[in-house]
Specification:
The complex is a heterodimer.
Chain A lengths: L9 H10 L3 H30 L9 H35 L8 H24 L11 H6 L4 H29 L12 H32 L14 H34 L6 H14 L15 H13 L1 H15 L8 H24 L1 H7 L3 H31 L5 H27 L16 H31 L38 H7 L15 E3 L5 H17 L7 H21 L5 E3 L1 H10 L5
Antiparallel strand pairs in A: 1-2
Chain B lengths: L10 H41 L6 H23 L8 H25 L2
Helix pairs in contact in B: 1-2
Classes of the chains: A mainly alpha, B mainly alpha.
Chain lengths: 624, 115
């Protein structure tokens, strides 16, 4: 890759993206991959809401409805929200800490391909015609009784995607611990980096239980195991425990990076230092830890007894304290700030009341006696959509606008961005606010239709219209993205004008080695400090310009994952087709051979010569 | 290739490095003997129980062997895997966090979930 722009053929471009280990390109891959699944999950959501807009609707059958809710939940959590957040982490975190790449670029690429092939595996179930239908939680007795290969797609697809997530998490941990620029102490890290760090630590501890649970489920369904089969001495409740020991941290893995994104936005567009930075860090770590101590609040009605319910209820409510600290810190960051209401800031302003409403209903459900009333009703559906859409999805949309220039070098249209926000925000509240009352009025969740005359008709109609508004918002966003890319008007280093952290001091998008010279970090919001002291470039180099060591691209991550993908089909059809076992063995062998090739080849990367860096600097007119 | 820098130690630094590695070696040998001793004691206790020596009951030996095992894990981590040296704060933090979670979750099961 040379600094001189040159036209490449389609094949060369494709090969470049398949083999890339550059964190910025992998970030874009995650973003686009997650975006694809986000649209897919959105279409499923629209079908659900179309089915429910009137009583006794027969748009989909009961079985297809189960498929839709299961795939909507699974897709949105595992294949949309997490990968898109990983996209932003990949694109931004190494820049924020002044690094040239993540610690393990090869594993980074492997993580992406495992997510993508896992998601593909899961969604091939639609083409095959047997789709997961036991809900995104896939509780064991139901999922063991489910006929066809639906749940097999779920177990194997999530196993592959989950492996990728675990790798990405470990990679970010090592990157943030080891690759911070000189002067970037832990207490000078931007909040998005901090939340990425804590979320990655949670991935490290939360994903192994999921892996084990999915293996148990795979063994029970495909290899004659009896882990969850009570008739053979297994325990069906244990799946719920394992799933929620993973599942509860998972929701914090999603929300913490969202908090980080909003912390950046509040600080940038209030043009003030984040209020109470140390308490923000402390609250993030505390939420991360407490997230592991509350899993049984998903299981209050299982019959754990009053002692367990009481203790888990108290632990659950404790989480409201650090979260409240964060809310107040954001409010006080805006207090007295010189606020600029851009599209990202608009999302941040909308996020606070939306997320607080989701949090308050969460505390309501945390009260175990009340949860007996609310359990399995639409109140629950309303609650978790308020925290996940009102928190995570608003953060993703905000970050799409905020970081679009850093990722793609162009600026999304602000007017269209605000149109997207208002459609999405109003649609979101229309869809889910009324569902709280639907829950109080007794409508159970996961029902494919309902009878007339129960007083649910009008509320469901409102909810469905709201979903339509959200869809319009997303369509406007996609249109905005396409038009912006076609116009292709390049922007400068700091297109928002008020960037505070290192990513805003370099090109948009940054050159492939990020920093010509590793920067020196002189405090929290280092670029802001430099600018206030009259350093227009926003950077002080920590070292002279010298040769840079870079990793080589590799196709092996793609091939390794392809092997697992093939092996998945073998495992699924092992008992019913003669080719099953050979394909399983072939796929695993393929993966192991790819791993062996990687281990045995001597790939030490390459050096970018000092001359080339100086030439790039000259071309940019001395800019970073 | 980047410039390769060669750094020559001063005599004082050389002395210090020598003294340190000597102490490290002594510690390693000491801990190694201690571990062998603990292993010997464990095996002897089990042999004594098998032979029916008075006073060596199951309820004494099992906790003792568990305790010795815990000590050995600690020695292994801190001396042979060098966790006692500087710059191991982060791995320690993650290990202890993992151990704490691995302790608290089963504790919750045996005390309040399955009681």
């Amino acid at each position: 890759m040379s600094s001189v722009a040159q036209k490449k053929g389609f094949g060369a471009t494709l090969w470049d993206w398949l083999t890339t280990v550059d964190h910025k390109k992998i970030g874009i891959l995650y973003f686009l991959g997650g975006g694809f699944f986000f649209v897919l999950g959105g279409i499923e959501a629209m079908m659900i809401r179309y089915q429910l807009y009137k009583p006794n609707n027969d748009f989909v059958s009961a079985g297809l409805f189960n498929d839709l809710i299961t795939m909507h939940g699974t897709t949105m959590i595992f294949l949309a929200a997490m990968p898109i957040l990983f996209g932003f982490m990949n694109a931004i975190v190494p820049l924020q800490i002044g690094a040239r790449d993540v610690a393990f670029p090869f594993i980074n690429s492997l993580g992406f391909w495992m997510f993508f092939f896992g998601g593909l595996f899961l969604n091939i179930s639609w083409l095959y015609g047997e789709v997961p239908d036991a809900g995104w939680t896939s509780y064991a007795s139901l999922s063991l009784a489910s006929e066809g290969h639906g749940i097999d797609f779920y177990a194997i697809g999530l196993q592959i995607a989950g492996g990728g997530t675990l790798m990405a998490g470990i990679n970010f941990l090592v990157t943030i611990i080891n690759m911070r620029a000189p002067g970037m102490t832990y207490m000078r890290m931007p909040l998005f980096t901090w939340t990425t760090f804590v979320a990655s630590a949670m991935i490290l501890f939360a994903f192994p239980p999921l892996t084990i649970g999915l293996f148990f489920l795979t063994f029970d369904r495909m290899f004659g195991g009896n882990f969850f089969n009570h008739e053979m001495g297994g325990n069906t409740i244990i799946w719920e425990h394992i799933f929620w020991i993973f599942g509860h941290p998972e929701v914090y893995i999603l929300i913490l990076p969202a908090f980080g994104i909003f912390s950046e936005i509040f600080s940038i567009f209030s043009r003030k230092r984040l209020f109470g930075y140390p308490s923000m860090v402390f609250a993030t770590v505390l939420i991360g830890f407490l997230g592991f101590m509350v899993w049984a609040h998903h299981m209050f009605t299982v019959g754990l007894g009053p002692t367990a319910n009481a203790i888990f209820a108290v632990a659950t409510m404790a989480i409201a304290v650090p979260t409240g600290v964060k809310i107040f810190n954001w409010l006080l960051t805006m207090w007295g700030g010189s606020i600029k209401v851009t599209t990202p800031m608009l999302y941040a302003l909308g996020f606070i009341p939306s997320f607080v409403m989701g949090g308050v209903t969460g505390v309501m459900q945390g009260a175990a006696p009340l949860d007996y009333q609310l359990h399995d009703s639409y109140f629950i559906v309303a609650h978790f959509h308020y925290v996940i859409v009102g928190g995570v999805v608003l953060a993703i949309l905000a970050a799409t606008h905020l970081y679009w220039p850093k990722m793609f070098g162009t600026m999304l249209n602000e007017t269209l961005g605000k149109v997207t926000f208002w459609f999405f925000f109003i649609g979101f509240h229309m869809t889910f606010l009324i569902q709280h009352w639907l829950g109080f009025w007794g409508m159970p969740r996961r029902v494919w239709t309902y009878m007339d005359g129960q007083g649910w008709n009008f509320a469901n109609l409102i909810s469905s219209i709201g979903a339509l508004l959200m869809a319009i918002g997303v369509i406007v966003l996609v249109y905005n993205a396409i038009m912006t890319s076609i116009k292709n008007v390049k922007v400068a280093n700091d297109p928002w004008g008020d960037g505070r952290t290192l990513e805003w001091a370099i090109e948009s998008p940054p050159i492939y080695y990020n920093f010509a010279a590793t920067p020196l970090v002189r405090g929290l919001d280092t670029v802001w400090i430099e600018k206030m002291e009259g350093n227009e470039t926003g950077l002080t180099p920590a070292e002279p310009i010298k040769d840079i060591h870079m990793p080589n691209g590799s196709i092996i991550p793609f091939l390794m994952t392809l092997g697992l993908f093939i092996a998945g089909f073998g495992a699924m059809f092992r008992t019913e087709a003669a080719w099953g076992l050979p394909v399983l063995i072939f796929g695993l062998l393929w993966t192991f051979v790819s791993m062996a090739v990687r281990s045995l080849q001597d790939d030490t990367g390459y050096y970018i010569k000092k001359d080339e860096i100086l030439r790039d600097l000259k071309r940019k007119g001395g800019q970073n | 290739m980047a410039d390769v820098q060669v750094y020559k130690r001063t005599p004082a630094e050389q002395q210090l490095a020598k003294r340190r590695s000597k102490k490290a070696m002594r510690d390693q040998v000491m801990m190694f003997s201690l571990m062998i001793f603990l292993t010997l004691v464990s095996f002897s206790m089990v042999v004594a129980y098998e032979a029916g020596v008075a006073g060596f009951s199951k309820y004494l030996i099992i906790p003792m062997v568990m305790l010795f095992a815990a000590v050995q894990v600690g020695l292994q981590l801190y001396y042979f895997m060098h966790m006692s040296e500087k710059g191991h704060g982060i791995p320690q933090m993650f290990m202890y966090t993992g151990a704490l979670l691995g302790f608290l979750i089963p504790l919750a099961f045996v005390t309040i979930v399955w009681w």
